[in-house]
TrEMBL record:
<dbReference type="InterPro" id="IPR029058">
    <property type="entry name" value="AB_hydrolase_fold"/>
</dbReference>
<feature type="domain" description="Serine aminopeptidase S33">
    <location>
        <begin position="27"/>
        <end position="134"/>
    </location>
</feature>
<dbReference type="InterPro" id="IPR022742">
    <property type="entry name" value="Hydrolase_4"/>
</dbReference>
<dbReference type="Pfam" id="PF12146">
    <property type="entry name" value="Hydrolase_4"/>
</dbReference>
<protein>
    <submittedName>
        <fullName>11839_t:CDS:1</fullName>
    </submittedName>
</protein>
Amino acid sequence: MNETPLKADTDKGFALHGSLYLKSNAPSDAVIILCHGLGSTKNSETIRHIAENLKYHMVTFDFQGNGESGGSTAIGNLYDEVENLRCVISYVRSTLKREILGICGRSKGAAVVLLYASIYNDVPLVINLSARYDYPDPDYVKKAFPDKLEKLEKDGFFVWEDGPGDYIVRKEDLITRSKIDMSCVKNINKEKVRVLTVHGSKDEVCPVDGAYTYDKLIGPEPHHKLIIIEGADHRFKNQKDELLKAVESWLFENQSWHLGK
């Protein structure tokens, strides 16, 4: 395996930093673009494990304000990250001169790839690993940051110490987040795009019920395939090999569909 750094300039005055993973026996010359989740980076354990061990060529990158990338981030900025992904897709096509077989995201990144697909419909295979469906959750801060409620009410923001750098959570960002409507996945063009959803039955962060909702909105097969990994948590901590096997098998099967169109 060969890992090469890459840098994609945005039209916002900052660059997105990533890596290209080339595999010696990849089943296709095309690449899969992999998107990380909230408070994460391209070098997180789960993202690197997928990038290094999936047999396909992979591109990973840091969303704006995360890891090595410039710009700023926010808890509800999914549409900003959709445009980050669009920038990286353009870079892969125009600069690397490679076809993009699929886009894959985990958690927040999974919601981003689904939103991207619902708008642009220009990448054939979309992989959703543990995306949240229901964003309007008024108790989110109470559950996730119980010790920050007073500061949020008093100052309108708080600093999430475990976030990427100085991650500031603002009240207006939480309002933006609550208005995200993932039912837009019904706009994914079934003639151009196929979707895989893999979710853990014991996901403690993004309820598994959302995976079944995505199946109703995007399905049935072959347009959408739903795989629930029994006992898996949000990060597939003890089931990463099972996750890889599921993704790889679906990619290989649908690579044939894409090439045969």
